[in-house]
């Protein structure tokens, strides 16, 4: 069944590669986590839905997965390169709160979204500020050969490693034109691995180091946390497509320097074998961003009555390497599709015999075996979740198949998709929008009265109830094929 080799798109080579684990039978994955200076927008969450599907796929393929996601609570500047202020310091100043409080609040908010989207818990969440001593050690190890000191910090000289910027395929001479000119920098693309606190200033977060009081650079953080927990080289490093341009090339440069110093002599040792990137969720007006004022949070979707897993499904409908445009209509369509799947699955579940069903029951029938194999081939082809979904739907639409075969095969497919079909009822998908003035219980009570009136052929009362509900924004849907009866 799981014998189709897993192929993944490696951004380093810009090609599909068969996954060959560094450690037989294992898969070690590092995902760049959020900078917890603000709520994540749903675009950010696309990056974690993608990483989650990757992890689930590796588990499906039988690898023992170790997944690490970090929490950045220091060092990420308002520009990915060396320009601007520390995002955390800036927000703390704006809110007149301590950075630690800011970090805690937004980390919890992020975790709430992770849970709502059925993103599995990684083996470890690494928090940047817990690893500062290791970051200093790492920097000390590469400082002599690869770095130089300026007034503002310790800088990495990108000309000291072979083939810098190959991930971005950027022209390093121009440094993409985004890198702030710092007096004394040897190459435009050189970056700070340690930022000194300017004389006369105190930062809320600062540590002593051989280069003076200061804070680690954002790129250093991810090199250190990934190497510490997973060991170089590990299998897969993931992040959003923007990280392909600056953050990950800089991580790679540091990893190369570190690995060479530590006897892993290949000058192109990038730290991770495969680098994978999800494309952006965009709005009609452009890339979604929380730096630009109003932004879409998962909670806003819920407040408007959309189940968060409809957003997960929306992500799965697109390939992770394609841009995905967000629209409310698209989200509504995803919710309807999810409802259909949940209801179809529930129908099969109702038909199950009372006995305990073995998880491998799907292997008994040819049709479910074939469909699981097709699902496997889709997912093994660089995570083609869109096709995986249609295979699942095709199976749920079958007739005259033993229900235990369908239910176990669907549960198996859902272990990759993560839609939670097994523990959802259609009523769970009906969320009352925050703006609604009427409660679900009130709606249900009104509908029960209306049903009685109709049974008694009292159509005047029945119509009056419908009109009352309409006045409160509730649309009664007689004969709704999905059996939803009402919507707000
Ligand atoms: N619109 C988007 N669609 C998909 N992924 C995104 C989008 N914007 C950011 N990401 C990814 O989300 C993850 C978390 O990013 P992070 O917390 O650093 O947010 P950010 O870069 O400060 O956000 P923004 O720049 O949108 O304000 C990263 O992997 C990043 O590449
Ligand atoms: Zn990172």
UniProtKB/TrEMBL annotation:
Residues binding ATP, per UniProt: 290
Reactions it catalyzes: tRNA(Cys) + L-cysteine + ATP = L-cysteinyl-tRNA(Cys) + AMP + diphosphate
Position of sequence motif 'KMSKS' region: 287-291
Gene assigned in the entry: cysS
UniProt remark on cofactor binding: Binds 1 zinc ion per subunit.
Record family assignment: Belongs to the class-I aminoacyl-tRNA synthetase family.
InterPro entries associated with the record: Cys-tRNA-ligase, Cys-tRNA/MSH_ligase, CysS_C, Rossmann-like_a/b/a_fold, tRNA-synt_1_cat_dom, tRNAsynth_Ia_anticodon-bd
Extent of motif 'HIGH' region: 34-44
Keyword vocabulary terms for this entry: Aminoacyl-tRNA synthetase, ATP-binding, Cytoplasm, Ligase, Metal-binding, Nucleotide-binding, Protein biosynthesis, Zinc
SUPFAM superfamilies linked: Anticodon-binding domain of a subclass of class I aminoacyl-tRNA synthetases, Nucleotidylyl transferase
Subunit structure: Monomer.
Protein name: Cysteine--tRNA ligase
Domain Cysteinyl-tRNA ligase anticodon binding stretches: 441-480
Principal location class: cytoplasm
